[in-house]
Design brief:
226 residues, globular, binds NADP nicotinamide-adenine-dinucleotide phosphate, alpha/beta, Rossmann fold, seven-stranded parallel β-sheet, 40% helix
């Protein structure tokens, strides 16, 4: 059953940029009341690696129907160069953070509520240099399954995007970004990288998909299959 988003209260952690900012606009257009949280520069401050910021936000704001997190922290290096603190930061963003969001926001979440987290293609495409990101993304897929059982009937889902032109890759020099996009397009079944439309429309659908829970939806142009 499709649940309307009109009038629903949605918290988007990581909503100040990239996929989160795009989803904030889309959800508002669909009639939702959107609150954006980020580590800085927004009215609501949440750093998912700092439980006190989550607890404060949950205690001071009205209940949310849906809580989304796009938080991620990268540590893409060969095994020989791994640093414990940066491994922990990557897991804090993708695993501990979502668990703590559930801990503090689920108790007040009304019937029909849901959590939506962001995993990623690397969890299903192992390659040297991405062991931390891959493992954290795969762990998040396990997390939504387990959490969906414990929090039922609240729903818990994830989206695992493939390489998406979300703005996040703009930090790369043009040549490296082009090479990344060309490689990702060639490695997909659809011959292109993802757009904000691809991911944002899937996220909106999942927020309203009343009979979908415990799932990771792969929005990756079939990249896992090649
Ligand atoms: N774009 C892609 O190609 C791609 C591919 C696979 C998976 N994904 C996943 O999709 C999600 C969104 O990607 P994106 O392209 O929009 O990336 P992005 O532009 O880097 O956005 C990441 C967001 O996470 C927030 N964030 C990071 N650490 C946080 C923390 N500790 N607490 C709260 N917020 C934190 C950032 O907010 P601040 O403003 O506070 O820094 C930012 O809004 C990520 O989880 C990413 O791993 C993306």
């Amino acid at each position: 059953m499709k649940q309307e988003l009109t009038g629903k209260r949605i918290l988007i952690v990581g909503g100040a940029r990239g996929i989160g900012a795009d989803l904030a606009q889309r959800a508002a257009k669909a009639g939702a009341q959107v609150t954006v949280a980020a580590r800085s520069g927004t009215e609501v401050r949440i750093d998912v690696t700092d439980e006190a910021t989550i607890e404060r936000a949950a205690a001071s704001l009205d209940a949310f129907d849906h809580v989304v997190s796009t938080a991620s922290a990268h540590h893409d290096v060969p095994v020989a160069d791994l640093e414990a603190e940066r491994i922990q930061a990557a897991f804090a963003a993708k695993v501990t953070g979502p668990l703590l969001l559930a801990k503090h926001f689920a108790p007040a979440m009304p019937e029909g509520g849901s959590f939506l987290f962001f995993s990623g293609i690397v969890g299903w495409r192992p390659k040297p240099g991405t062991v931390v990101k891959g493992t954290a993304n795969a762990a998040l897929a396990a997390l939504v399954t387990h959490l969906s059982v414990e929090l039922a009937p609240l729903r818990v889902n994830a989206i695992a995007p493939g390489i998406t032109d979300s703005g996040t890759w703009d930090r790369l020099p043009d040549e490296r970004r082009r090479a990344l996009y060309d490689g990702a397009a060639a490695a997909s079944l659809t011959g292109r990288v993802g757009t904000l439309d691809d991911v944002g429309e899937a996220a909106l659908w999942l927020l309203g998909a009343g009979w979908v829970t415990g799932e990771t939806v792969h929005v990756d142009g079939g990249s896992r299959h090649r």
